[in-house]
Amino acid sequence: MVEPQAEVQAPQMAQTPQIFIAPSNLPPTKSLIFDDNLATTWESWKKSWTRYEIATGVQKQEGIVRVSTLLRAIGEGGVKAYDTFTWGEDENQNDVDIVLKKFDEYCSQRTQIMYERYRFNNRNQVPGENIATYLTELRTIARNCAHDSITPDEILRDRLVLGIRDDHVRERLLRLNDLTLQKAVDTIKAAEQTQQQVKLMSIGEDFVNTLRRTQPEDAGIESKQYRKTKPPRYSMRNRQQEG
């Protein structure tokens, strides 16, 4: 009886990890620009990233691939911001939705509501811009203005900052975080007092310089000549000698 031959199993080959390669005909998303209007810029970038994920198929990949691709696309500034994030025990760093939420918080914290209202109040229709485009721009800016929670003091503060004539003081106020109405008033008053003091000092210097210019050049010479020609002091001793 012929014994059946044992099946010879082919050696198993190590599985090669799948590497995602985006279609070459789809340009990558541009890097996120960290400007003064970061919240709006981030929202625009995130929409562009979502469309890129769908178009390239990144959305179907594992979480770690999606996060890595996002960090590759967001640019150096975004990677530096990502490195500052803190993670809770239940937060997975390879979950792209959690990563996007972290970026939402990071970018929104760096948006100054007063500055956005300043942009909103100063955004006029430009030549050649139709009403639809103009309205879209206003709505985009208004998203970061928090008009639904504005208080009377904030209205006065914004109008004050917009209405002052000193551009340098306005620029300084716009750079301040958590600017209150009282702080704005104090800053403007301090600037006015400083300007008044500088003005008075300038007037004093001009007055002294004017006196110096109007004083005769020979005044000093006449004074010396007067001292030389002044009659000698007539003392009692002189009288006795004469007598």
Verbal overview:
The protein is an all-alpha fold and 243 residues long. The protein has two domains: 37-109; 113-212. The protein has helices at residues 38-56, 63-74, 76-83, 96-109, 113-122, 131-142, 152-163, 167-174, 181-214, 219-229, 236-242. The chain starts with 37 loop residues before the first helix and ends with a helix.
Q: Any chance you could write out the topology, listing elements then pairs?
A:
Elements: H1 38-56, H2 63-74, H3 76-83, H4 96-109, H5 113-122, H6 131-142, H7 152-163, H8 167-174, H9 181-214, H10 219-229, H11 236-242
Region (Disordered): 214-243
Residue share in helix: 55-70%
Query: What is the overall pLDDT average?
Result: 78
Estimate the global geometry from the Cα principal axes: elongated
Query: Count of DSSP helices?
Result: 11
Strand portion: under 5%
Structural class: mainly alpha
Task: Summarize the helix and strand pattern as letters.
Answer: HHHHHHHHHHH
The CA-CA distance between the termini, in Å, is 179 Å
Radius of gyration: 39 Å
- Low-confidence residue ranges: 10-19
Largest sheet: none
Number of domains: 2
Number of strands: 0
